[in-house]
Records
---
Amino acid sequence: MASSAPAVIAAVSGIGSAMLPIAPVMLPFAPTIFPVASLIAIPSLAVGWWTQKSKRGKAEKEVNETKEKAPTADAAEALRRAEEERLATERRWLEGVRPECRPSEEDIVRMKAEYLYNPNFLHLAVVGSSGAGKSSFINAVRGLSNNDPTGARTGIVEMTNEVTRYPDPRPNSRIVWYDVPGAGTLNVPDWQYFNDLGLYIFDCIIVLVDNRVLDSDLAILHACEQFRNVEAFIVRSKSDQHINNMAHDKMGPGFDLADTDDETRAQFQQMKSEERTRFIKETRENVQMNLDKKNLSPKKVHIVCKDALLATLRNARSSKAIDEAELLSDVGECVLRRLQSGC
């Protein structure tokens, strides 16, 4: 599987001409499918607030009408119910709880137009918390380094303020990647994330998990289960950094690999091997425990790092590799299956 994985995801392009001809009229952006990514504006995050405000306004209007037409007792009861609803709504919003709602057909059409969705392509969104490494991941799966001028911007702070579209650069590829702003930021609160950003229109969502599984990660996975058209993957990012940090901690305070003898370096490598095994085991257990707590379906977590992803795509070996080949194979099979079925 490892040797064929890059071919699976890259050669989705191979399905191309014979099975799914692309009509330029259906894809107005086809002539510029591989240049620098275009930016997609996020829908207004004030929509939910205005919706609630509208409901409160309607309730108050009904109260005023009741005062004019009904006995005083009825008006008082209507006013009490309206006030209770107002307080309950404000409490839910302050607690970060947002009632689930299904998008309308108009919402779906609007968001597909917003993200340049085309049924001849597979649209994959990479989501997760701020700083989880979404941009680096997208660069790696596109076969690019972080300093490539056509790559996603990376940094120690949240670099993505808009949903950004990145066509896959491989010739004839039918994959389009989307870098989505981090969930749980001030700009995109958890309870607005899935619906307001229109994530329900994507064919596949990759939930990138960093140090721990957050409520926002689980909320996205829960939402994905409500939409049969959306396939979700869990990816644990930056595995090499975490394993290296664990090994350093075991070596004790003040340890510096650059300032050690051969024996100490060998000891560090042994410690790193042991911590790698522990990291993989604990990561899988932790993800499954969090899924169980929210009554979510069991799901495999793919443990990866960007360097090993790049190496796997180039059919090279990497000592950092864990689940990179399997992830590329699983995503590639998902893409292949959906393109063949026309879904």
---
Amino acid sequence: MFVSVESITIVLSAIGVVLSLGASIFGGLAWVVRRIDSVEGRLSGRIDSVEERLSGRIDSVEERLGGRIDSLATEVTELKIAVARLEGPQRHLYTSGR
């Protein structure tokens, strides 16, 4: 069986094109993965620092608001007692008939 030089050249060229495209795609994907990893590392560090700062601020705000809510609860209870005394039943004065 005889294969022409042109056919061998075409097959070898096709194999070369497929291999070069495959290597290019593999290299591109490797670059993308490496780039994503580096960006992810930087972003996770920044996110962690922002999360720590926000946690501290939220805790301080929570403490201040907790104190205010507790003082308001005491004042509201005192107000309820005062209103109940004002709206309570009328006191009747009983005088003896003798």
---
Amino acid sequence: MSNKKKTTTAWRHMYLKLHDGPVMVDETLTMESDLLRRFYESEYHGLLSLKIKNSIYKKVIEFCKKRAEIRIQHSNSDNDEKVLQDKLKDFDAEFIKQFYQSNDENAILYLMDAACKLVITSLLDLLLDDIVEIISRKSPEDIKNFFFVHYNGNDRLFNNMKEILTLTRWVLK
């Protein structure tokens, strides 16, 4: 067997298939995305199919790149962890503010969807409270349409879903 060294350029061969076509995965995205990090570490070469809009993907890339820059910038200094956390918190606040200034709640929902699909915990944590507030203002019909929930007449499935929602009602409070 060969003792080949692991290549550090594996990320250059990984692509995401988005709504508008495939895009190459940026290495900084693997620093924030648990899903892509696992693929990167296993040297996956290929296409991952995710239903994410390109415009939202660009925002996710912007978020991940800036957080990676902040982490790298503070990893080489003698600053303590609190300074790093403060810088990340300041960036997070500025990042989310742009969505409220544009008054686009659906963009926030799509951003949360992308964060879930890519398993970006830092973005999920940032959006959680905002998502709960947005969903609480939406009608059941709007929620159903956004999340593509369709009742197909299966009463057993409907009752199971109803039971799950009853058990997790605290999430929406």
---
Amino acid sequence: MKDAEKPTSCRPGWVHGGDSCYLIRSMTQQWAGAKTVCDFLGAKLLAIESSAENEFIKSELTALTVNHSGSDKDLPPKYWTSGTDFQTPGTWLWGKDVPFGFSSWAGGQPMTHHCLAIDPQNQYTWVAEDCERSTNFICEIHLASSHDTLIG
């Protein structure tokens, strides 16, 4: 997306953090379906590019989990991100071409699955999950920076 096409503020219902807006969806989709929903909204599945961004997402998900109602059997679901190793098994990328500059894998991860999810049941660390599993997801839109929007 060109900078001129990037929004300068978050839409209603989206959460602002850093230079992005996030939509944390409490509707379950398989990984491909989640990607399609985010694409339809003009966004991408979440790519966590720094420790600060990871901490922000963890804090947002922690707040949602605190408000999660249900029994112990009804544990909070995982959240899809754009991380996969589709192109080369064992080489994880955000989307099709962005290597991880930061990671927060759970102990023993990644395992045999090919899509990355954030796991609230494991201190919000990352787990390799079956891409066919239906779970929640997070969409992200990068905002235009102030120097991108100057008219001159």
